[in-house]
């Protein structure tokens, strides 16, 4: 997994730090005495994680490692984005385990934040031609009568692997731009 300086700059975007806060919300509330005694005091005597909560967190770590490895996350940001989904799910279980009201509140919070702060997309330079219809493909082929090699990559917005590969593909399109390679 490569970590670049520009990736660290992207971590300053609200999507990442808000999701990091959501990721650690339950453990932070449970381990901070003041918050724990205010939220969990009626039901628990100590502010420690019990065995069931530790099992959920251990299961979360295993799932995150397996799923992100299977997804082929090659950058730190792709790894974080895919792990946010699972950590929010585990936190949802933990909040419901503590109290149904907290679980519902956390669910509403996650939905609102997901709608208001979507995952940032690549916005750098690119020399990629997008063929959204047959007419645009035929038009591009008519314009380039010379010997041009076309590199075609199929892209879908809903596929995480495509979303993770799009910035890399865009950067490569700028770096290796020639009139004979499209």
TrEMBL record:
The chain crosses the membrane at residues 15-36, 92-117. This is Thioredoxin-related transmembrane protein 2. The keyword Ligase does not apply. It comes from the Eukaryota. Signal peptide: none annotated. Keywords: Membrane, Transmembrane, Transmembrane helix.
């Amino acid at each position: 997994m490569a970590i670049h300086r520009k990736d660290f700059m992207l971590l300053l975007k609200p999507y990442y730090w808000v999701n990091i806060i959501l990721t650690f919300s339950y453990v932070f509330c449970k381990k901070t005495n003041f918050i724990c005694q205010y939220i969990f005091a009626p039901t628990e005597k100590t502010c420690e994680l019990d065995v069931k909560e530790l099992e959920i967190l251990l299961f979360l770590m295993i799932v995150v490692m397996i799923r992100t490895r299977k997804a082929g996350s090659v950058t730190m940001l792709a790894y974080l984005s895919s792990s946010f989904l699972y950590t929010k799910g585990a936190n949802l279980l933990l909040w419901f385990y503590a109290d149904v009201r907290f679980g519902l509140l956390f669910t509403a919070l996650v939905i609102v934040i997901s709608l208001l702060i979507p995952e940032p997309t690549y916005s750098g330079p690119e020399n990629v031609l997008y063929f959204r219809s047959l007419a645009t493909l035929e038009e591009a082929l008519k314009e380039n009568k010379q010997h041009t090699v076309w590199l075609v990559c199929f892209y879908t917005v809903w596929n995480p692997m495509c979303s993770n590969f799009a910035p890399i593909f865009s950067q490569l399109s700028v770096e290796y731009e020639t009139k004979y390679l499209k």
